[in-house]
Design a protein that fits this description.
The protein is of the alpha+beta class. The protein is built from 18 helices and 18 strands. The strands form 4 sheets. Strands 1, 2, 3, 4, 5, 6, 7, 8 and 9 form a 9-stranded mixed beta sheet that branches. Helix 8 crosses helix 10 and helix 12 runs antiparallel to helix 13. About 2% of the residues have low confidence.
Length: 591
């Protein structure tokens, strides 16, 4: 089965069962300001999971492009990817466990022809505050699964949420494919990492609301949120042991092999995998409708880290020619028919890769000078401290293997234990940061963030009035304290221009204008002058928010009902975000 056949089969299956297909959203989450990237299909749907009506109805399905960065250092194994496609289906207060589990089972066994005996599932075992999910277990048994195929786990494995201290939460049931390999021991099961059980689908049942005192109440709107990893399922269906042997990566892997043969170089298998995986990820980031650019902050930092990791690996193999654009071109050609934005943004993608290559080449040279200075100083001692080795990794992007090679050439050893200690501290901080970023989600979409969201529309309209219509949105982020708005513009905005922008927004606020919500086709929205980021990527019906005289945008919401709710608007900072992109941070004062 090909990737396109799997995408089509999945979407059609759920469309035949009353689901409306929705388009893949941007990799920059619009309605979830707590994460850097869209990490799951649920992020674009946050307002609708909270009860706001979706234009497509209560049953939805899609193929969502996603990026997850917490396991970057695991990339190169058989399954981990920073970029992946998530097949998803949702019920927004419509069907629940029986229908959801039954549809998943039907698709896996009757459409993908996975044998019943190859399936295993997990269900919530219950604890002191919540009973076991007996309903889900009985549904699975009714579909033919035996006791030995059903595993009961606690909150760590089979409970979702709440995203913050309070909010929607509930049990989930995960579906696994059982590989043809021996068990790792008497307690082998889906919770262990031996590789016998490969997770392929997760059905989350948002059933309860956790209150501040720790108690649970039943939600009025019970939702189902499911996700299936396309790459992982495709690997299984084609009888492969890793994603790199599938059609997804084979064209890139072959191109890389051709490059290595031409250069007369040998690169370890894991490093070839990393180069190809990161190529796909950065191509999608750069080709996103929001045009993410390399920078030293947030999404741009992750993008830069991936690009520079690829450059390091080429340099490690003593390859000094820039092949990033050639490899990225393979991705654009392969995915362009499915994701047209890659072809449309081809020039931008290749320009950014070329620019970053030359920029990092200088950094890499500076890092080598610094490394040699470290080694000069300690040559008599014979050991490079773990702290200095980590500094080379963190500041200049030197992998520990690279540093070890430089040291060994001088007969110097590296304190690997000290490096791992510093590295683990860094990883723990990164994961805690990622967890903190993810901690908001459903709980941060409140009235205040809705008003800040409305303020970004007014800001966008004001910027276009003052700076010209070439200004376009390139990203936004909203926290409980402020809004951040990125836009395309080639120079610093002057103080006088910022004052004019601020005045226009406050003028709209003082007029107390009703924010008008309409649902229409994208074509009609554009005919009426609405702005939108994704053009053809919208669904058949979109929401259009209009603030007469100031803004008209296609947007998923949520928004204030009247501009007067914002009270006042103040720009706190204007700065560069990346090449050709400026950033404004601003606040509003409410009642």
């Amino acid at each position: 089965m090909t990737a396109n056949e799997l995408r089509t089969m999945y979407v059609n299956f759920f469309k035949e069962r009353g689901h409306k297909e929705i388009a893949s959203a941007s990799l920059l989450p619009e309605n979830d300001p707590t994460v850097l990237f869209t990490t799951a299909g649920m992020h674009p749907l946050v307002p609708y999971l909270l009860g706001e009506p979706h234009p497509g109805g209560k049953r939805l399905t899609d193929v969502q492009k996603c990026v997850r960065t917490e396991d970057i250092d695991e990339v190169g194994d058989d399954t981990h990817c920073t970029f992946f496609e998530m097949l998803g289906n949702w019920s927004l207060g419509d069907y629940f466990k029986q229908e959801s589990i039954s549809m998943s089972f039907e698709f896996l066994t009757e459409y993908l022809h996975i044998p019943l005996e190859r399936l295993a599932v997990t269900v919530f075992a219950g604890d002191e505050s919540m009973p076991a999910d007996v309903e889900a277990e009985e549904i699975w048994k009714g579909l033919g699964l035996k006791n030995h195929q059903i595993f009961r786990y606690g909150r760590e494995n089979n409970w979702w949420g709440p995203a913050g201290q309070t909010g929607p939460c509930g049990p989930d049931t995960e579906i696994f494919y059982v590989m043809d390999r021996p068990e790792c021991g008497p307690n082998c099961g889906p919770a262990c990492n031996c590789g016998k059980y490969v997770e392929i689908w997760n059905n989350v049942f948002m059933q309860f609301n956790q209150e501040a005192d720790g108690t649970f109440t039943e939600l009025k709107q019970k939702n189902v949120d499911t996700g299936m990893g396309l790459e992982r399922v495709l690997t299984i269906l084609n009888g492969k042991t890793n994603v790199y042997d599938t059609e997804i990566f084979l064209p890139m892997m072959q191109t890389l092999e051709d490059i290595l043969e031409k250069e007369g170089k040998i690169v370890p298998e894991r490093e070839k995998r990393i180069i190809c995986e990161h190529t796909r990820a950065v191509t999608f980031m750069l080709g996103d409708p929001m045009k993410i650019s390399p920078s030293n902050t947030e999404q741009g930092y992750i993008l830069r880290r991936l690009i520079r990791r690829m450059i390091r690996l080429f340099r490690k193999a003593d390859i000094h020619t820039n092949y990033l654009c050639e490899l990225s071109g393979v991705v654009i050609g392969q995915y362009g028919p499915v994701y047209p934005e890659l072809g449309e943004n081809r020039e931008f993608i290749l320009e950014q890769l070329q620019r970053e290559y030359h920029l990092f080449s200088k950094t890499l040279d500076e890092g080598l000078k610094k490394a040699n200075r470290y080694l000069d100083r300690i040559e008599q001692k014979g050991i490079l401290s773990g702290e200095l080795a980590f500094r080379l990794y963190d500041t200049f992007g030197f992998p520990i293997e690279f540093t070890s090679e430089l040291a060994s050439e001088r007969g110097i050893q590296v304190d690997m234990d000290g490096f791992r200690k510093k590295f683990d501290e860094h990883q723990n901080k990164s994961r805690q940061g990622a967890a903190g970023k993810f901690a908001g989600g459903l709980t941060t979409n409140n009235e205040h963030t809705a008003r800040l969201h409305t303020a970004t529309h007014l800001l966008n309209g004001a910027l276009r009035k003052v700076l010209g219509e070439e200004v376009s949105q390139r990203g936004s982020n909203i926290t409980s304290e402020r809004l951040r708005f990125d836009f395309s513009f080639g120079r610093k905005v002057t103080k006088e221009e910022l004052e004019k922008v601020e005045a226009i927004v406050n003028e709209a606020i003082q007029k107390k204008i009703d924010v008008i919500l309409e649902e229409m086709t994208p074509e009609k929205a554009y005919e009426e002058g609405a702005m939108g980021v994704f053009s053809e990527k919208y669904g058949e019906i979109v929401k259009v928010y209009t603030i007469p005289g100031y803004s008209k945008e296609i947007c998923g919401g949520p928004h204030a009902q009247n501009t007067g709710e914002l009270v006042s608007f103040k720009i706190k900072k204007e700065e560069a975000s990346s090449a050709g992109v400026r950033r404004i941070k601003a606040v509003i004062q409410e009642f």
